[in-house]
Amino acid sequence: MTRNIWLFTIALLVLSQAGHSRGVEATGEIDAKAAYARLSSLVGEWEAVTKTGKARVTYELIAGGTALSERETMDQMPPMQTVYHLDGNRLMLTHYCMAGNQPRLQATAFDESTGELGFEFLDVTNLASPSAGHMRNARLTLVDKNHLRSEWDFYDNGRKTTEVFNYVRIR
Q: Could you list the residue range(s) of the whole structural domain that residue 156 is in?
């Protein structure tokens, strides 16, 4: 019986350590300050050619450099705004969408060597219903100082569509 208790205790310890490791991975702990510094290098104007026309995005540091504002305009669509900022050791974004809601995403992956930065859904304000269209995830790849790849996952009635933009710096 004592042997069984000992084996059970060891099994619990192993499982608790495995769960802890998965927890760190799941929270997506990243170097938020380094990611924000890399994002800040986007300040300027960018342009992409899409199947519906030109997309333009302008990045500007605001609030004494504590937030990065992204203003996106596309032919025949209303402008949208995304604001990136640090929240303690987290990098957050709030996307002010033409769908009329405001999803908040948290950076969960950052590879400084490739410039890849991934954001995952945290919550959303002003969502008409759980199935209403809204952004859920985003991936930015800062390819080099003049090229940016932006991917946004939009969910509507449980269906995902991904919008991909390949921007080139124009200023």
A: 31-169
Asked whether residue 140 falls in the same domain as residue 156, the answer is: yes
Residue by residue, DSSP assigns 93-119 as: EEEE-TTS-EEEEEEEEEETTTTEEEE
Higher per-residue pLDDT: 17 or 76: 76
Residue 28 predicted with pLDDT over 70: no
Q: Are residues 12 and 79 in the same domain?
A: no
105-134 tens-digit pLDDT: 999 999 999 999 999 999 999 999 999 999
Mean pLDDT of 84-100: 97
CA atoms within 13 A on the CB side of 42: 31
Closest CA to 70 of 148, 5, 163: 148
| Same structural domain, 23 and 41 | no
Residues 70 and 85 in one domain: yes
Q: What is the largest CA-CA distance in the chain?
A: 74
pTM of the model: 0.82
Helix (H) and strand (E) counts for the chain?
Answer: 2, 10
Q: Are residues 96 and 116 in the same domain?
A: yes
Q: How many domains does the chain have?
A: 2
Q: Where are the alpha helices (H) located in the chain, listed in sequence order?
A: 2-27, 32-40
